[in-house]
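thread: overnight batch results

M.L. [08:02]
morning all. the overnight job finished for the chain we discussed friday. pasting input first so we're all looking at the same thing
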Amino acid sequence: MTDVDLAAHLADTAGRILLQVRASGMFEGKALGNAGDETADRFLVNALRAQRPDDGILCEESKDTAERLDKSRVWIVDPVDGTREYGEGREDWAVHVGLSVDGVAEIGAVALPGLNGGTVLRTDKPVTLPAAPSTPRMLVSRSRPAAEAVAVAEALGADLVPMGSAGAKAMAVVRGEAEIYLHSGGQYEWDSCAPIAVARACGLHCSRIDGSPMIYNQQDTYLPDLLICRPELAEETLRLVAAM
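M.L. [08:03]
and the structure it wrote out:
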């Protein structure tokens, strides 16, 4: 099985498991989120260790070790991106399975199990972007929109689109449901590795909000900001952020 086939299979299977956990009726709210995190984490980590024993693993819900730092290939995983949304029965959550090669998000799959029938977006099957509307749409957190994103949206005349998890927002740009996802503060490598890999494969601009590249498998896994957007909007968006 190729790396991308493995990533897609694991993301899809974990998503199906998570739907079964939610449908069991045994948990609700925060307890459901915790149960989902634990179950998906155990499946994904065990499967990766069995299928790619020589690679490193960085998973949000598992204890991190320094062993991965000496690896060229590191799987970076978020078992439930958007635990709150998952626990609330919403659809805007995701499963991330990404592969970083020498610090670059090269391969990834993002499952959106909450959508009707489920959807998996993957780096080897890039989505063709539809024509952009005349008024750009910018994705923001539904509970705590970043001040930079709100200010940039106002300057661009963009419409704000609240949404849940980072992966759901990133894939909304890939799917043509918005044109810009600008985030600052509060994310880690597992929040963006797989989504960045998929977005780059689709020809979108991907960087930090100062324009520098996203670098993975660092000792400090805090990677707080990102910009995923249509290429034609990148320069102006970065200029507006820099001017703040």
